Queue: 4 jobs
Job 1
Amino acid sequence: MPEHRPGTPTAFEALESFLWWDFRDAGDWGAWARKWGLAPTKSSALATYELALAAQALLRRLESVNNGAKPDGSAIDALNELIGQLDIRPELSPSGKFALASNARSVSRPVAAMLILALEAMSAGIWHRFKLCRDPTCSASFYDSSKSATKIWCSMAICGSRNKMRRFRERRRS
């Protein structure tokens, strides 16, 4: 499955990529953060690898709710704690517009940037479109750009087809 699905708003492509990516190690996280312009140096990204994995895991737990899982209060509590730890808060500009910002240490800024994007998606009312594939062998993150926002598979050609065929075979055996 590709890293980006057609229809993902440009402003949220980095978030989609962050949620989709399975970081193999700190070097992989560092390369990803530099690719997206979030970490100026390799060492600054390496210092936040564990924090990035924690943030990604918490956001994925919230994503699963968008595809039918029960809400996870502990994930919300942990995410609120992380938001506080990274000092993410609203800031008002002289023109009267507000934006989220963070006073996190410079090494933590890549993770803070991803959390800010997730909060902006929630604020914009599109977070419900960030989902985890329902196929238990897949669990890929994807952005549901369908008009009705009712997709449940990361890819109909792969996971959806496989699961529909499995259910068909089960019905035939019964």
Job 2
Amino acid sequence: MAFTRTCALPDIELSGANGARVNPSDFAGHELIVLFCPNKLLDATQELTEFNALSDALAFNDAYMIAICDPKAGSPASRVTLASDPEGFAWNLLAECLSQQERAEADKGAVFLMGRGGCLKRSWHGAGHAQSVRQALGERM
């Protein structure tokens, strides 16, 4: 189920690949997908593979994606940045956009689509939403 609560890009530093730092707020001005794929999610590799297939849609919409998952889950596409959130700080900030029950089920993951102004456009709880995100990227809201 998608929610459209008003949430903003978190201004928080995450550990990226190769020791780089990643801050979701650095992507303000672009659409940004934040994929939470917890280590407990058995299909983290499959989930990342499905989202990597969106690279053409990301480029067409001048959008980027941060995949917060186990760095061993796969190799990201050019507009996908791998990051980790071991303390759960980013999850705690963005989970406010989910229902109380969905927040309690953090182990199922979630996807957040942030608009160019940094506000939440859509969120999806759980895995398997790559095609829904592709469709939402094509919508003009």
Job 3
Amino acid sequence: MDRQSSRGFSGFSLIETLVATAVLTIGVLGLAQLLVMATAANRNARTVTTAAVLARSKMEELRAVPFDSLTASPPGALAADTPGFVDYLDASGADLDARAGAAFVRRWAIAPLASNPLNATVLQVLVQTTAAYAGETRLMSLRTRWAR
């Protein structure tokens, strides 16, 4: 046997260990970034879903009002906070008294349909988020006098 084979090669060299550590570190950093992105996407999805539920619940409330009891909203009710046509809601959808601390602002508009104002009304609900995800959800429905 020559001298090299008698030394034995059991174990890793320092270079192999450093390369393996670098590969592992890059992989873990990639997974950490993926986790951060997934968490942000999940938070945005939760916000969008909550906004849609809040819009839908207000639309159902408006559609439950008898046709002749619907009061038309002033122009611009969807664009600005109009008393009687705006709600301030926390992150769970509970009503708040003021805009301060609100996670959602829900506005709605009621207007006669221009082509048939005596028998049809347009209902619109807009929910805007005040969180980092600055999106909005808008629902529109046509309500007729003969709704069943």
Job 4
Amino acid sequence: MSALDVHGADLVVMPGHVAQFFLGDDEWHEALIAVRNALALGGRLAFETRNPAARAWESWTPAETRRTLSDPSAGGIETWSEVADVAREVVTTTLHHHFARTGEHVTATTALRFRTPEQLGASLSAAGLGVEDRYGGWDGHPFTDTDEELVLVAVRR
């Protein structure tokens, strides 16, 4: 990502933990520069990420995540996730879908980067954005080290 086709925005929102999909520092920095360039002076970026101190991946086990869904066409679909690897700040998970009607088993692997609040603050600063607020969720409560979520609001300087 090198540019967004937006200029002078007052607000950019990155929902769905999208910030965690930028695994490398260079690609994360490039994304933040693109957002900064899309923002008007004083414009804000808001996004959430999982707090690595909460270690959410420890509950991403088949026993904790197994669910059965019913689809009118496909029938029963059993889903679950499991951690495949934890390497430093990157957690790789496998999401399973088992289709009861056909017996087909489909998997998807995803890697997520868990940056600390300090790492996020430094990366925002390096991209010309300053942390304005930190919350422990979209409900706006103050962030604590035990919160599972970290919502950051950064402002273009």
